[in-house]
From TrEMBL:
It comes from Rhodoferax saidenbachensis. It catalyses: a 3-(all-trans-polyprenyl)benzene-1,2-diol + S-adenosyl-L-methionine = a 2-methoxy-6-(all-trans-polyprenyl)phenol + S-adenosyl-L-homocysteine + H(+); a 3-demethylubiquinol + S-adenosyl-L-methionine = a ubiquinol + S-adenosyl-L-homocysteine + H(+). GO terms for biological process: methylation. Transmembrane segments: none annotated. HAMAP family: UbiG (MF_00472). O-methyltransferase that catalyzes the 2 O-methylation steps in the ubiquinone biosynthetic pathway. This is Ubiquinone biosynthesis O-methyltransferase. It comes from the Bacteria. The gene is ubiG. GO terms for molecular function: 2-polyprenyl-6-hydroxyphenol methylase activity; 3-demethylubiquinol 3-O-methyltransferase activity. InterPro entries: SAM-dependent_MTases_sf, UbiG_MeTrfase. Its EC number is 2.1.1.222, 2.1.1.64.
Length: 239
């Protein structure tokens, strides 16, 4: 596989069909809007975004990119869904979001073009949708400056994750469209940690993210059985 084409056409088509609903708080993207303050706060607990060159890989309609720009970061959001990017650009214009731009380019292609260019790289809810997640992790490591931070979030692969993220969220609670996730593409924390080590990233913190169906609220937790986040850093002496 050509690493610069590390994308699943079916996945791109799936999200492109929903692109116009990215900023509808009651749409299929409602969970992303609900968890965004949590993941943004967690990122800011590791590094203050004000003034930092920040890259959001797999930005979709720009939910995280927009919020990071509003915290003072200089943000570039990249994705391979042209429809989602158009929605992100339109929202930035309508909301007058400062310091955010968007571009249709893969992580791997951008890594060849702009190595060691960003203080912070985020890749949220994206790794479980590409054929080769390790290639994306390597691209993130290439794109971040020595001493910079790379944040990931994805889904674990185990029985609990299948029951909650697929059966529960997609079929019983209808929180997500059916077919949003494929069990085989989910990534165990040990696997993601191995990808990070091979890419030269040091794992500093792991955080779980859970959903309470009774309160209909998401919260950060120590339980990484389903959704989890990684905070990694590129060593200052990286060669």
């Amino acid at each position: 596989m050509n690493p610069i084409l590390n994308a699943d056409p079916a996945e791109l088509a799936k999200f492109s069909e929903l692109a116009h609903r990215w900023w509808d708080m009651d749409s299929e993207f409602r969970p992303l809007h609900q968890i965004n303050p949590l993941r943004l706060g967690w990122i800011q607990s590791m590094c203050v975004l004000q003034g930092l060159q920040t890259l959001d890989i797999g930005c979709g309609g720009g939910i995280l990119a927009d919020s990071m720009a509003r915290q003072g970061a200089e943000v570039l959001g990249v994705d391979l869904s042209s429809k989602a990017l158009k929605v992100a650009q339109l929202h930035a214009l309508e909301a007058q979001t400062p310091r955010v731009t968007y571009r249709e380019v893969s992580a791997e292609a951008l890594a060849q073009e702009r190595p060691a260019s960003f203080d912070v790289v985020t890749c949220m809810e994206m790794l479980e949708h590409v054929p080769d997640p390790a290639s994306v992790v390597q691209a993130c490591a290439t794109l971040v400056k020595p001493g910079g931070w790379v944040f990931f979030s994805t889904l674990n692969r185990n029985g609990s994750a299948f029951l909650q993220a697929i059966l529960g969220a997609e079929y019983l609670l209808n929180l997500l469209p059916r077919g949003t996730h494929e069990y085989a593409k989910m990534i165990r924390p040990s696997e993601l940690a191995a990808y990070c080590r091979r890419a030269g990233l040091e794992l500093h913190a792991t955080q779980g993210l859970g959903y309470n169906p009774l309160t209909r609220r998401y919260a950060l937790s120590t339980n990484t059985q389903v959704n989890y986040l990684f905070a990694t850093q590129k060593p200052l002496d990286f060669q």
